[in-house]
Specification:
This protein is α+β, with helices and mostly antiparallel strands and 255 residues long. The strands form four sheets. Strands 3-10-5-8 form a four-stranded antiparallel beta sheet. It has a four-stranded antiparallel beta sheet with strand order 4-9-6-7. It is built from nine helices and 14 strands. The chain folds into two domains: 164 residues, Sandwich (Jelly Rolls); 85 residues, Arc Repressor Mutant, subunit A (Orthogonal Bundle), CATH 1.10.10. It is globular.
Length: 255
């Protein structure tokens, strides 16, 4: 994702920009074709979308969205990492999913007009593009390619949510950590099983509804058994089938 900006001296941002959104520079060029949702669109349409966008920086730990707030923008993550969260009945934060550059979010409120269904927090310093609801609705409903992509994304979201509920239903904390790691695992073209940009132990603990100390112990079990291997910001899963098997063996692996 490449972003460049410049503005003429003395020019001011439009007053219509919502106060929670940082005022963009007067002229901004964004390579929108690198955003999966928008790739393949006509260049003239991409320019219109870019001109309608606002841009916002959010520091690590800052809230991008709050559950229950008005859904007045479709948001695109240009740089950084975000965590989608909800609150449990006793007020604890529960991680629902992670967002990486190129992802978009906030589409539910754009489609049904209801308040945000979850909060979004920055896991690191992040840059976002915000497309106002009116333009976002036009984009989704007037372009079959975009509508198809949004529908497939919603279907995937529902499937992931069902999988995550199953993980949270596991009675043992180690089981939940193992299952979450298995869910995050991807197979590279070379056949290597990896977990790229591994979430912090604190983030994993939030998503698995356990403590950071428990996550640390569970990871140590995997490393000591040769199931995973640390490699900078990723984990190489040397024994993916054993990782899946360990999800079903909580007592044996909790010691």
């Amino acid at each position: 994702m490449v972003i460049s900006s410049e503005h003429a001296p003395g020019e001011q941002a439009a007053a219509a920009v919502p106060p929670q959104v940082a005022a963009p520079a007067q002229s901004i060029t964004v390579h929108l074709q690198h955003i999966p949702l928008l790739s393949g669109l006509d260049p003239a349409l991409l320019r219109q979308i870019g001109m309608a966008m606002h841009f916002r920086k959010v520091g690590k730990g800052g809230y991008v969205l709050h559950k229950g707030s008005v859904g007045d923008h479709l948001l695109f993550l240009l740089a950084g990492r975000l965590r989608v969260v909800d609150l449990t009945e006793d007020g604890r934060e529960l991680g629902l999913s992670l967002l990486s550059p190129g992802d978009y979010f906030g589409e539910l409120s754009i489609i049904d007009g209801l308040p945000r269904s979850a909060s979004v927090v920055a896991m690191e310093n992040s840059l976002l593009a915000l497309l106002p609801a009116a333009q976002a609705v036009q984009l989704i409903y007037a372009h079959p390619l975009i509508a198809e992509r949004v529908m497939k994304r919603l279907a995937l979201t529902i499937r992931k949510a069902a999988s995550h509920r199953s993980i949270l239903g596991l009675p043992n904390a180690h089981q939940r950590v193992f299952a979450l790691l298995a869910q995050l695992m991807k197979i590279t073209p070379s056949g290597l099983a990896v977990i790229e940009n591994v979430p912090t132990q604190q983030d994993i603990s939030i998503m698995a509804n356990t403590s950071r100390e428990t996550v640390s112990r569970a990871l140590n079990v995997l490393i000591q058994n040769g199931v995973v291997e640390k490699d900078l910001r990723r984990l190489i899963v040397r024994l993916p089938e054993q990782l899946k098997a360990m999800i079903l063996e909580p007592e044996k692996n909790a010691s």
